[in-house]
From TrEMBL:
Keyword tRNA-binding: no
InterPro entries per the UniProt record, alphabetical: DNA/RNA_pol_sf, GrpII_Intron_Splice-Mob/Def, Mat_intron_G2, Rev_trsase/Diguanyl_cyclase, RT_dom
Taxonomic lineage from the root: Bacteria, Thermotogati, Thermotogota, Thermotogae, Kosmotogales
Keyword annotations from UniProtKB, A to Z: Nucleotidyltransferase, RNA-directed DNA polymerase, Transferase
Domain Reverse transcriptase: 1-138
The protein's name: Retron-type reverse transcriptase
Entries under PROSITE patterns matching the protein: RT_POL (PS50878)
Keyword hit for Plastid: no
Protein's organism: Mesotoga infera
One term of GO molecular function: RNA-directed DNA polymerase activity
Residues annotated as signal peptide: none
């Protein structure tokens, strides 16, 4: 059995408790300054009374420092957990054990550490039912990518590959590559080979659409086709999305072209896990 525990609000004890383990006065002063820096809401600055504002760059660091105590207390009880910042998985063998471990975890977090557990985002589930963790979708023996993460990634790609731009495709590829490399690297252990191939094909198609838009007329397209050995004259609408997927356009702008301008091949990072040790009994 597995269950998620999520919580978002740190208590005002954060800095005071960590003072016992952090002796560098400059670091403590910097942390206090960042915690009291306030937040912008609708363009208006507001002071923060307690805790670290959500989204603050220092929040993950504070979470790891502060929650080390939680890790140690759970470990001392022989309870297996996986934690990244304030996202936690706790493992058990039975439903009864899961309820017991959940009660222990909540007691440590809320009573000992003065944190607030979000009950709405806390649940007990089985591996067969599946769950999401850090953008991954884990179900049975399969590890996939969460749909919202895939949608977000495609949204970023679309933002960089708008058809009506005049930026040279080589320059667009330079901007795209860090995004593609980061996505592929993060999800390289996922069973995603066919999805990565599909994404790469879709990205190449979007780049072809940009090239067609920049060529403007079929004159340039037919000139390129003749040089490549294509004999028939082509007549299509250069600014239409469907034109970028025609046989003639793929012939004029082959996959080899994108290799030559160094478009990152996401499938080269694919390295799926064959076993998941953390899930083994």
């Amino acid at each position: 059995m597995l269950f998620h525990i999520f919580y978002r609000r740190f208590s005002y004890f954060t800095v005071d408790v960590d003072t016992e383990r952090v002796s560098d006065g400059k670091i403590l002063k910097l942390i206090r300054a960042m915690l009291k820096s306030g937040v912008m809401e609708d363009g208006v600055w507001k002071a923060t009374e307690t805790g670290s504002p959500q989204g603050s760059v220092i929040s993950p660091l504070l979470a790891n420092i502060y929650l080390d105590e939680f890790d140690q207390k759970m470990k001392a009880r022989g309870i297996r957990i996986v934690r990244y910042a304030d996202d936690i998985l706790i493992f058990s063998k039975t439903q009864e054990e899961a309820r017991e471990f959940l009660a222990i975890a909540i007691n440590i977090l809320e009573i000992d550490m003065k944190l607030k557990v979000n009950r709405n985002k806390t649940r007990i589930t089985t591996l067969e039912e599946g769950f999401h963790f850090l953008g991954f979708e884990i179900k049975g023996e399969r590890v996939g990518i969460e749909k919202s993460r895939l949608k977000r990634f495609k949204g970023k790609v679309k933002g960089l590959t708008r058809r009506n731009q005049s930026t040279p495709v080589k320059e667009i590829v330079k901007e795209l590559n860090p995004l593609l490399r980061g996505f592929a690297s993060y999800f390289r252990i996922v069973d995603l080979q066919s999805t990565l191939r599909g994404l790469l094909s879709w990205i190449r198609r979007r780049l072809r659409a940009i090239i067609l838009h920049q060529w403007k007329s079929t004159k340039k397209l037919n000139r390129v086709l003749r040089r490549a050995g294509w004999e028939e004259k082509v007549n299509l609408r250069m600014n239409k999305w469907r034109s970028s997927h025609t046989k003639a356009v793929n012939y004029a702008i082959p996959n080899r072209f994108f290799e030559e301008i160094n478009l990152f091949d996401m499938t080269s990072y694919y390295h799926p896990l064959s076993k998941y040790p953390i899930l083994d009994p």
